[in-house]
Amino acid sequence: MRKIAVALSKGGVGKTTTAVNLAAGLADAGRRVLLVDLDTQDQAARMLGVDPAAGIAELVAGDLPADDALFPAREKLTLLAGGSSLAGLKRIISRKDFGGERTVSDALTPLDDRFDYVVIDTAPGWDTLAINALFYVDEILTPVALEVLAVQGLLDFARNVQSIQRYHDRLTLRYVLPTFMDRRVKKSGEILAQLEESFGDRVCAPIRYNVRLSEAPGYGQTIFEYAPRSSGAEDYAALTERILYHE
Amino acid sequence: MRKIAVALSKGGVGKTTTAVNLAAGLADAGRRVLLVDLDTQDQAARMLGVDPAAGIAELVAGDLPADDALFPAREKLTLLAGGSSLAGLKRIISRKDFGGERTVSDALTPLDDRFDYVVIDTAPGWDTLAINALFYVDEILTPVALEVLAVQGLLDFARNVQSIQRYHDRLTLRYVLPTFMDRRVKKSGEILAQLEESFGDRVCAPIRYNVRLSEAPGYGQTIFEYAPRSSGAEDYAALTERILYHE
Lengths: 247, 247
Ligand SMILES: Nc1ncnc2c1ncn2[C@@H]1O[C@H](COP(=O)(O)OP(=O)(O)OP(=O)(O)O)[C@@H](O)[C@H]1O
Ligand SMILES: Nc1ncnc2c1ncn2[C@@H]1O[C@H](COP(=O)(O)OP(=O)(O)OP(=O)(O)O)[C@@H](O)[C@H]1O
Ligand SMILES: [Mg+2]
Ligand SMILES: [Mg+2]
Known about the structure:
Two copies of one chain form a homodimer. The first copy, chain A, is an alpha/beta fold and 247 residues long. Chain A has twelve helices and seven strands. A seven-stranded mixed sheet of chain A has the order 3-4-2-5-1-6-7, sandwiched between helices. The termini of chain A are close together. The interface between A and B is medium-sized, with 33 and 33 residues.
């Protein structure tokens, strides 16, 4: 059972796009996948074109048994949705005197034997839910736009992760995924080289800028359903292969 | 004295790029401007190429008098920086039993007579600091990338703002600024038309996709300093004119 958080505090780098399309790619390859949305924006459900009545906040609060919170979004792809009720979950966690960082882990661990992969989409920023995700997973996949501000954000984020590793030593920033790669832009290539220098073989083959990726959410479809022959589908299939390779 | 928050919960839509370049544009026009960074990412300081030792968190906590927390970043442009110490500020606010939402307002109001404009850069997400900003300002400027997920984020955000207006009736979502406009992409034009239909004359002239805007932060310069003849400089000069027009 592999647990992967898709996380970077910098906003708009392709976290949700990556979490949803990777989860779909792994499910298409026959793995049993749980996609957890820890963002109040609730965009994973929108990208999949589904509208679950409940999700992770209701599961953690004990309002619902797991079977009612889990939503079958696609064959072999189950969604535990996010949404505005997560704000309440954040308050519950911040009022705990100890162990608040393990709240999500305590709620998800009983589901471990049902899935081969758990993929978690996190919100931008460094908030209590993102920290909760990092105490639950073993692997982090960080999408990073090939832009100066995003790379600076990555260096800050890697430092923050180190402070968590002191309390959770299995956690590793395993994959750095360059996104919005645009060969027309000289800077893209330069920044990619910088990433490879700092993060070595953790750097995955980049996801190219592909307008189909920004259109698919409007139809509630994954990139594989919306534009199976697009560069976006190709690049996310390659990412899926890379993740499966390490099984 | 005008107080403007640059805000949208969706990440990566151009909030910091807009806050910094608008603040610089207003300062170049001779106004006394305070730029406040309410994001733990601390990117406003990086974009201006400065490294203040303290900022808004130290001001609110009472550790420093205003004169030591305010940083002269450019002529007529003063910065009150953000950074990781804001996480402590969030904790202070969430432990208050009442009035937490006015913490930033209480700290900034004594500075009102020193400035003509206060521009606040907010973090992605809907957190206690973003809410604090909305209780302080009268006007919201919302940058929104011309993409499906960002526009959905805007509709959610506008709903959240309404719940604050019940307690702060002068607050108005005054400007909607389309960003990343790329005439090569058919979708851009379609989404722009949708925005104009929903938000009418609040929609500003769009900021075009311009690689110079993503390069300037690497040199610690505003777009007016880095590439004064670029489309990015033109578009942010036009935005500045629009804001000044309403004085
Ligand atoms: N490779 C790509 N090519 C083109 N558009 C993309 C690509 N990846 C993502 N997008 C689009 O860019 C925007 C940002 O992506 P996304 O929402 O996945 O980022 P995020 O990191 O999850 O944002 P947030 O910080 O708000 O959670 C979306 O509109 C998405 O459709
Ligand atoms: N019009 C534009 N053309 C090209 N690049 C842009 C444009 N506006 C912003 N950028 C770049 O896009 C990225 C996102 O912009 P920015 O960081 O300002 O967004 P943000 O909303 O502040 O993000 P966050 O949600 O993380 O705070 C940055 O790398 C920035 O340099
Ligand atoms: Mg997201
Ligand atoms: Mg920002």
